UniProtKB/TrEMBL annotation:
Keywords recorded for this protein, A-Z: ATP-binding, Cell membrane, Membrane, Nucleotide-binding, Transport
Database matches in PROSITE patterns: ABC_TRANSPORTER_1 (PS00211), ABC_TRANSPORTER_2 (PS50893)
Name of the protein in question: ABC transporter domain-containing protein
Annotated GO CC locations: plasma membrane
SMART domains in UniProt: AAA
Protein's cellular compartments: Cell membrane
Recorded topology in the membrane: Peripheral membrane protein
InterPro entries, per database record: AAA+_ATPase, ABC_ATPase_HisP-typ, ABC_transporter-like_ATP-bd, ABC_transporter-like_CS, MetN_ABC_transporter-like, P-loop_NTPase
Chief localization: membrane
GO molecular function: ABC-type amino acid transporter activity; ATP binding; ATP hydrolysis activity
Domain ABC transporter positions: 2-235
Length: 239
């Protein structure tokens, strides 16, 4: 589904990704962990072309993101959810979810509205559709952001620490929606430090440090019996 081949990424002269090789299979659920500044967000953003790379290649279903003509199609099919929700503050939940299908896909408003209402119901917000973001909790806002991404009918979803800006009691409702998506067979790449989620949902956990993929394996292996010292040290700090 997504392939990174020997990816090197610099910001100016500062290298932040080193020879990253990674393949995400169709319907695979991959969790990425690692210290702050290790390049997790940058890697995720490379997967949908939000960041350019200096050497190597990123492919989505065999099509290189280096081909700028493909980028629009790829961004549509690769959905992304951020730590901060980035909703339009003056639009209701429903309008936030309708926006992409109407403006990007040219869907009729009536149809987009109907679809948006279905998606908001799916994430448990049937009764909040007409609220603006400031009238929603952080967990509700993040669920709107997930519904908005789903409205584009993505084939894979990227989540960048989707619960780390939330109060602890609101984390569960967002993870529940993500687990539901996983159960439906959505391909997902999730940066998170929610170890319960990783153990329950991930087919594979990757540990990243200083711009490199250090370790990759089944959740029980990487989280339970890590091979690398750096993984052990990281896990002992966060658990
Ligand atoms: P993580 O998500 O693992 O915390 P990031 O991918 O955000 O890591 O950052 C990796 C490195 O790239 C860090 O050293 C960070 O300071 C740097 N970096 C991230 N974004 C930018 C940017 N837009 N310009 C310059 N440096 C950046
Ligand atoms: Mg990050």
């Amino acid at each position: 589904m997504i392939e990174l081949k020997q990816v090197n990424k610099y910001y100016g002269s500062h290298q932040v990704l080193f020879d990253v090789d990674l393949t995400i299979q169709l319907q695979e659920r991959v969790v990425i962990i690692g210290p702050s500044g290790s390049g997790k967000s940058t890697m995720l953003r490379c997967m949908n072309g939000l960041e350019s790379i200096q050497t190597g290649d990123v492919r989505y279903r065999g099509q290189s993101l280096l081909d700028k003509r493909k980028l629009r199609m790829i961004r549509r099919e690769v959905g992304m959810v951020f730590q901060r929700f980035h909703l339009f503050p003056h639009r209701t939940a429903l309008e936030n979810v309708m926006e992409g299908p109407v403006w990007v896909k040219g869907m009729k408003k009536s149809e987009a509205r109907e679809r948006a209402a279905e998606l908001l119901a799916k994430v448990g917000l049937a009764d909040k559709m007409n609220n603006v973001p400031s009238r929603l909790s952080g967990g509700q806002q993040q669920r709107v952001a997930i519904a908005r991404a789903l409205a584009m009918e993505p084939k894979v979803m990227l989540f960048d620490e989707p619960t780390s800006a939330l109060d602890p009691e609101l984390v569960g409702e967002v993870l529940t929606v993500m687990k539901q998506l996983a159960a439906e067979g959505m391909s997902m790449v999730v940066v998170t430090h929610e170890m319960g989620f990783a153990r329950e949902v991930a087919d594979r956990v990757l540990f990243m440090d200083q711009g490199r993929l250090i370790e990759s394996g089944m959740p029980d292996e990487v989280l339970g019996k890590p091979r690398e010292e750096r993984t052990k040290a990281f896990l002992s700090r966060i658990l």
